[in-house]
Amino acid sequence: MLRVEGVSRSFGDRLVLDDVGFEVGRGRLTGFVGGNGAGKTTTMRIILGVLAADAGHVTLDGVPLGPEQRRDFGYMPEERGLYPKMRAVEQIAYLGRLHGLSRSDATDRARDLLTRLGLGERADDPVENLSLGNQQRAQIAAALIHDPTVLVLDAPFSGLDPMAVETGLGLLGEYAASGVPVLFSSHQLDLVERLCDDLVIIAGGRIRAAGAREDLRETYGQKRWEILT
Description:
The protein has eight helices and ten strands. It is α/β, with parallel strands linked by helices.
């Protein structure tokens, strides 16, 4: 289990995260929901060790995270970070080799991931020739190339059409089913509510609600009536 406990972070005089705490269970898809500036990206960067927390800590199965554990994490930033001139398959394979895969294994795995994400026919195109949505799919493949032990994805479905969203979620669901904690942020509450096992809702740098989807719906949802005619 990935656990965030009592994490706070300020930038100058501005408190961005205030005693943030939640859990991402193994075998669970956890949606991280909040508006722009709510603190989602800062929280994810602290989980990844890109930023340090002013207070609190992050653990995996009770063990504080260090550089070695984080090497096996899969991370997709909100900003696109692929080299535009490289072919998509070459780019993903290169990242796999940085994680210790052989050239042939990295290439084979890159092609397989791109195919499963609907980019098989565009795998040999330069990244800059792909649409923004297809670049987004390539970035999902980049996060998965090394079979990560934890997945942290910042707005992975932004700009994707409904079919691409379903394809990506299916792939992430497979990782969750294998025991990988999966945390992804989204502005689309309806998407997260429909597809995630657990939700974490953040606003103003504080966690407002967290737990299983059905429990949150029961606690906070309004009654719905169906009229049959």
